[in-house]
Amino acid sequence: MDRELAKISEAFGAACRRYRLTIATAESCTGGWAAQVITHTAGSSAWFERGFVTYTNTAKTDMLGVRMDTILTFGAVSLETAGEMATGALQNSKSLVALAITGVAGPAGGSPDKPVGTVCFAWCWRNTQGQIDVPSCERRLFPGDREAIRRQAVIHALSGLLDRARNMP
Predict the structure, then answer these.
(1) What's the structural domain count of the chain?
(2) The pLDDT of residue 53
(3) CATH code at 63?
């Protein structure tokens, strides 16, 4: 793993220890890369609870409970789908926090509304009463080839989670 990703992994692990977080990931276009970065740091079994790689629409519905109506209405690459993926990761785990990534990594598959490089993210928390909060969702457009888009998506997802953890009450 390169230095930048290793540094993010270490920072993420430190934040999880500090804030006593456990995480589940729900990934589509990154194919488990975020989980790989998280688990790069020794001791990550203390904070990484599980990961879901849900590349197909069927996997998203079967494993995470994403509603097919959501996918048909908004698309697999949408804020709505990402939000349901993150919520589903929490519903199907014991984690306190989840992140979701779904996007168009290319080189094909883009559209005028969702060109190659479009990635949707969601971060979701379980509150102190054990209930799942409304996910925070975001859409980004990353430049580059397939590898660059996926790498930027992983970095953005983990950085976004770090920022949110640091701003917890």
Answers:
(1) 1
(2) 98
(3) 3.90.950.20
